[in-house]
Design brief:
mainly alpha; about 270 residues; 11 helices
Length: about 270
Amino acid sequence: MPEIIKIIQPKEKFHWRDITELWKFRELLYFFAWRDIKVRYKQTIVGIGWVIFQPFISMVVFTVFFGNFAKMPTDGAPYPIFVFIGLLFWQFFSTAVSDISICLINNHHIISKVYFPRIILPISIIFTRLIDLFVATGILIILMIYYRFMPGLTGFLIFPVLILISSMAALGLGLFFASLNVKYHDIRFVLPFFIQLMMFVTPVVYSSSILGQYSWIMAFNPIGGVIKTARSEFLHSFATNWTQLGLSVLACVAMFVVGWMYFRVTEKASVDTL
């Protein structure tokens, strides 16, 4: 009898059945997420405290230089809590994009031996970074108590939505760079510079109000819209512009779809290259 060999490889085109395939491999998703958490925090001196220490020190530095010396406008809110809200979402987004961009290369020994939906690796990184986000949120709660800010019901309801928008934006952009990184290995050296530049066009340390009538441009930056909405709902310094948030959501969906589709188109070639 002739031996029949079945080659398991990713599909060349996107299909809605790919979503159900992710559900079938949900235990593997949990494994990768838990593995990353243990690797990051096991046998470390600072441990999970680094998640709190990093945004806190950044907040102090930005407060000294941009808040006290540069006198950046904050729409009437204290600068420390103003900038920390921006740092909370920005660091989640930027670190998630950086980690996702190298996830295929870092796991090439697994990818080259067995088939599973490769998208599981980037998604597991999102879950890992979400844990960091929730831990760092503890500082935000302390700052809000100290400065006597209390978000309303809308603020509590919009927070998960803002996290979802940030996650989709990070996943979409990360998938795009992950595919490029496999083919062009120097992308890993360019990406940190790109992320640093992106921070300056995102209202992290300043208010988008400095752009005046052109502040709506920030809405096409998904993280910019997220940060602005979070500040308006948590600090009540200005009214939430729901139209601009809607534009940010559209930009986020576009970023996610482009990143996902490019990842799917190049997935097979990426596995061969690795």
